[in-house]
């Protein structure tokens, strides 16, 4: 067998066995729960800016961006800017005319200043407002005109209604073969007290929004191969691939 094929096939077999391992599944969910008590997800930076993601999700996004090669990435939820700077740095490596649009209802002054000073700002446009506001969506439509390959990451307000609306709006931009990634679907599987100070929780979160969105939409399917291989993810059932 060709050595590359052999490597891929062995890896695929191990992932398949890993997927069926209840011990690893239990350890992983216990670990996610235990680390979430310390806000583990806040512990990392990308090129100097805090990125609020689990590292394995960042690696998965890196693979997706490299494989799909989008010329536009739309992100809802900027916070400290780490995720838009991550996306912009990937587009910088891909080269050519590629851009990130980040949308946040509240871009804090200190975060905006740091993002604007960052070398990756050359590939970033920030829009301030709600991701479901028609004025914001109209601006995104302008940026999306004539783009060949578009990817979307949703990581803003995590209530069912908000994420469902985001899915309905932003899924339209996603090109065939590309992805819309919905973060914090994991809320469905964590104890409610962890989100007791938030308007979302078990039964009302990004995971429930994805389930409802997929009921009426056969253009997207959950790409389980991603969560199967990374195991530790905040986007359980949240890697949605546009298949038609
Ligand atoms: C989890 S943080 C985003 C983290 C960021 N994607 C990262 O990985 O570093 C969520 C952000 O969503 C923003 N947000 C909340 N409601 C929003 C809305 N309706 N529209 C847009 N952004 C919103 C918050 O202001 C906050 O900065």
From TrEMBL:
SUPFAM superfamilies: S-adenosyl-L-methionine-dependent methyltransferases. One of its GO terms (biological process) is methylation. The keyword Oxidoreductase does not apply. It comes from the Bacteria. Transmembrane segments: none annotated. One of its GO terms (molecular function) is methyltransferase activity. GO terms for cellular component: plasma membrane. The keyword Transferase applies. Signal peptide: none annotated. Keywords: Methyltransferase, Transferase. This is Cephalosporin hydroxylase. It comes from Anaerobacterium chartisolvens. The lineage of its organism: Bacteria, Bacillati, Bacillota, Clostridia, Eubacteriales.
């Amino acid at each position: 067998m060709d050595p590359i094929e052999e490597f891929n096939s062995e890896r695929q077999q191990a992932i398949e066995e890993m997927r069926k391992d209840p011990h690893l599944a239990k350890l992983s969910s216990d670990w996610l729960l235990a680390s979430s008590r310390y806000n583990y997800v806040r512990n990392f930076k990308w090129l100097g800016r805090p990125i609020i993601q689990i590292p394995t999700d960042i690696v998965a996004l890196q693979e997706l961006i490299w494989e799909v090669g989008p010329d536009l990435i739309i992100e809802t939820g900027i916070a400290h800017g780490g995720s838009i700077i991550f996306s912009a740095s990937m587009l910088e490596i891909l080269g050519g005319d590629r851009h990130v649009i980040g949308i946040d209802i509240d871009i804090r002054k200190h975060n905006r200043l740091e993002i604007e000073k960052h070398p990756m700002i050359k590939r970033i446009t920030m829009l301030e407002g709600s991701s479901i506001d028609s004025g914001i969506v109209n601006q995104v439509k302008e940026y999306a005109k004539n783009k060949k390959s578009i990817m979307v990451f949703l990581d803003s307000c995590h209530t069912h209604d908000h994420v469902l609306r985001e899915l309905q709006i932003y899924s339209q931009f996603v090109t065939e073969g590309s992805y819309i990634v919905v973060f914090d679907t994991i809320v469905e599987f964590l104890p409610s007290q962890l989100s007791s100070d938030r308007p979302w929780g078990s039964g009302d979160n990004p995971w429930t929004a994805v389930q409802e969105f997929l009921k009426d939409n056969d253009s997207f399917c959950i790409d389980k191969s991603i969560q199967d291989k990374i195991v530790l993810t905040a986007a359980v059932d949240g890697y949605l691939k546009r298949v038609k």
